[in-house]
Amino acid sequence: MVKTMTATEAVHTYMRDGHTLAFAGFVGAVHAEEISKAIQESYLSSGHPKDLTLLYAAGQGDGKERQLNHLGEEGLVTKVIGGHWGLQPRLQKLALENKLAAYNLPQGVISQMFRDIAAGKPGVITHVGLKTFVDPRLEGGKLNDKAREVGDIVEVVHLRGEEKLFYHSHPIDVAVIRATYADTKGNCTLQREGVIGEALSIAQAAKNSGGKVIVQVEQVVDYGSIDTRLIKIPGIYVDAIVVAAAENHMQTNGSFYNPAYSGEIRVPVDSLPPLPMGERKIIARRAAMELVPHAVTNLGIGMPEGVAAVAAEEGLEGMVLTTEAGTIGGIPAGGGDFGVTTNPDCVLDEPYQFDFYDGGGLDVAFLGLAQMDAQGNVNVSKFGPKIAGCGGFINITQNAKKVVYCGTFTAGGLKVGVEDGRLLIHQEGKVKKLIPAVEQITFSGQYAVEKGQPVLYITERAVFELTREGVVLKEIAPGVDLRRDILEQMDFEPIVNYVELMDERIFRDAPMGLTF
After folding, report:
1. pLDDT of 364-401, one tens digit each?
2. How many angstroms separate the CA atoms of 4 and 183, rounded?
């Protein structure tokens, strides 16, 4: 029989100083909050466990104190390999103070690595990450001096005449995962979760590393009472079950439980309310013109989310939204529920979603534009002292059949309006986003050119295209001055040949009449 114990008992029984811990989760979904909280409490009261290595794929946090932020105590963790850092300010702080060795690798690579650890493979060999900051010829994913002292965990290899990146495996001592129900033999379901994540892969990886598997659940039920088709984690992998308090087992950071997120029911969904006229709607409208019927699509957080609202307002049907968390179809949630989807058609294990992404399954991806440079490189991962991390950005942008970046031309106070099909710039932003060289290469323009990947950069006043000759200015908004409003507001010279006007319908406060 699998042992049922408190989170504190599980930490004291199975975690030792120097262990490598793998955590499953996606933002605020399927994270074992009761266990991460118990680790923090144990360390603060006894000083143990300490000197841990933390391995995780998707960021897990609320931007404050919850989820992986519980592990942000000096000395508790001394090495972190993660896919996204933006939601974990307490770990970020330790990384910036050089109090732990900090690494950032693509989320999809880490999620797939769990399967390779389970299979006894030395690591992941993939094209994902070439010519970005995770390439060891640039930064190797190392975020601070402590990581540079510890050394490389990525290397360049050559297979059949092609360059690849080899990401080293890391045996797992303890897997910390979450499920919905467990029976008395440890068989676990995830039927009330909005995301499956990498729960199965992490459990297999720990078990085949000689490690232990701790599963947080909502309730323990009798053996034989669960439909076997619902079991996602077999009891042969599980060492301990922790029944969590309700407040530590929320479905997301924003909802205790919504059955429409877990696919148990479907709810009527009214059309998304039209976006108010402004720079976000202008950019989303121009981006929506790049949609094709039945496109398998990924929308990044922030500015690209407006594409769905524009498509709804224009009556465009057939766009299939997917998320790197594993959902296909439905409407991705935002805010405190980010990471799950309302009315998904299905929810895949995250590593399998990244298999599809890495192989070119996405027809088009719309991502945010934080910094862009003369080579067409984009940075969304590091800005001065702030570590955001790449998350699934590299997997998505390197492999989608087409990439559309969406963002304002400048930042910090930009105010715009429209009048008679023209753009009016009432106040220019203080920060230029189109600069000679980005701080960190999250997307490599050179790699895209070599692949022949179509890439557009859409702002409220201009559209650029990446070509073999460089970044070309293709369109400008009606009403703007080429020299004053564009060339003088960017710190590199684009190629300017024949420039068209952006469709004036974009700048009128009425539906555009878009059709496929």
Report:
1. 999 999 999 999 999 999 998 899 999 999 999 999 99
2. 10
Retrieve residue 460's tokens.
Answer: 């409220």
Q: Residue 122 to residues 117, 156, 167, 351: CA-CA distances in angstroms?
A: 7, 14, 8, 17
Instruction: Report the length, in residues, of the chain.
Output: 516
User: Is the pTM of the predicted complex or chain greater than 0.90?
Assistant: yes
SS3 463: strand
Rounded to the nearest 10°, the torsion over CA 357, 358, 359, 361 is 20
**How far is the C-alpha of 66 from the C-alpha of 339, rounded, in Å?**
16
For residue 272, pLDDT beyond 80 = no
- CA proximity to 233, closest of 192, 209, 204, 193: 204
Beta-carbon-side half-sphere exposure of residue 425 (alpha carbons within 13 Å): 23
Q: Are 284 and 309 in contact (CB under 8 A)?
A: yes
What's the DSSP call for residue 417?
E
d(CA 363, CA 361): 6
All residues at 6 or more sequence positions from 3 whose CB lies less than 8 Å from its CB, including other chains: 239, 240, 241
pLDDT value of residue 271: 67
Residue type, 95: A
CA distances in angstroms from 124 to 50, 103, 179, listed in the order given: 28, 16, 27
pLDDT digits (tens, 9 = 90+) for 280-308: 999 999 999 999 888 999 998 888 989 99
Q: Which 3 state secondary structure label does DSSP give 264? A: coil
Q: What is the dihedral of CA 49, 52, 58, 63, to 10 degrees?
A: 60
pLDDT tens digits along 158-206:
999 999 999 999 999 999 999 999 999 999 999 999 999 999 999 999 9
SS3 call for 404 = strand
* Contacts of 488 by beta carbon, 8 Å cutoff, 6+ apart: none
Average model confidence (pLDDT) for the chain?
96
What is the distance of C-alpha 248 from the center of its chain? Answer: 23
What is the distance between the alpha carbons of residues 35 and 462, in angstroms, rounded to a whole number?
A: 49
Candidates 215, 201, 247, 199; CA nearest to 10 is 215
Annotated active-site positions, please?
A: 324
User: Contact at 8 Å (CB) between 379 and 441?
Assistant: yes
Residue 254 one-letter amino acid: G
